[in-house]
Amino acid sequence: MEYYYKNLSNYTNVGRGGAPDTALVESKSRQISIIQDHIKLGSIYEVGCASGYILSELKKIGWLVAGCDPSPSEASILR
């Protein structure tokens, strides 16, 4: 896994100028809705958070957020 995340994982959105795919945004929006509907506002830690999109959206609505991802390139984006 270490080799994969250091050398092969690539979460970039090539061809969209870094913008996320529409289907991805819709999927993540559904996940955020489920979280809001079933979990009391508080703190959340996401393991494998990739670019941190869900965490970013949850932070906007008042969640205390943190996350990690084994990909060095994603970790640098998250910082």
Q: Which residues sit in consecutive blocks of at least 5 with pLDDT less than 50? A: none
Give the overall silhouette: globular
What is the CA-based Rg, rounded? Answer: 13 Å
Percent in helix: 40-55%
Major sheet: order of its strands? 1-2
Structural description of this entry:
The chain is built from four helices and two strands; from the N terminus they run ααβαβα. The chain is 49% helix and 13% strand. The mean pLDDT is 81. It is globular. The chain has a two-stranded parallel ribbon. It is an alpha+beta fold and 79 residues long. α2 crosses α3.
Key structural traits:
alpha+beta
Helix-strand blueprint:
Blueprint lengths: L1 H7 L13 H17 L4 E5 L5 H8 L3 E5 L3 H7 L1
Parallel strand pairs: 1-2
Helix pairs in contact: 2-3
Short summary:
With 79 residues, the protein is of the alpha+beta class. It has helices at 2-8, 22-38, 53-60, 72-78; strands at 43-47, 64-68.
